[in-house]
Amino acid sequence: MEKRISQKMEGLGTRRSVIREIFEYGNRRKAEIGAERVFDFSLGNPSVPAPPVVNETLAALLAEREPAALHGYTTAAGDMGVRRAIAAYLEKTHGAAADPALIYLTVGAAAALTITLSAVLPDGGEGEVLLLAPFFPEYRVFAEQAGGRVRVLPLREPDFSIDPAALRAALNEHTAAVIVNSPNNPVGSVLTEGNLREAADVLREAEAAYGHPIYLVADEPYRELVYGDAVVPFIPNLYQDTIVCYSFSKSLSLPGERIGYIFVSPEAAFAREVYAAVMGAGRALGFVCAPALFQYMIPACLGQTADLTVYRENRDLLYSSLTEMGYTCVKPDGAFYLFVKAPGGDAGAFCKLAQRHELLLVPSDDFGYPGYLRISYCVATDMIRRALPAFRAAMNDYEKEER
Amino acid sequence: MEKRISQKMEGLGTRRSVIREIFEYGNRRKAEIGAERVFDFSLGNPSVPAPPVVNETLAALLAEREPAALHGYTTAAGDMGVRRAIAAYLEKTHGAAADPALIYLTVGAAAALTITLSAVLPDGGEGEVLLLAPFFPEYRVFAEQAGGRVRVLPLREPDFSIDPAALRAALNEHTAAVIVNSPNNPVGSVLTEGNLREAADVLREAEAAYGHPIYLVADEPYRELVYGDAVVPFIPNLYQDTIVCYSFSKSLSLPGERIGYIFVSPEAAFAREVYAAVMGAGRALGFVCAPALFQYMIPACLGQTADLTVYRENRDLLYSSLTEMGYTCVKPDGAFYLFVKAPGGDAGAFCKLAQRHELLLVPSDDFGYPGYLRISYCVATDMIRRALPAFRAAMNDYEKEER
Question: Which of A11, A29, A103, A334 has minimal CB crowding within 10 Å?
Answer without folding.
Answer: A11
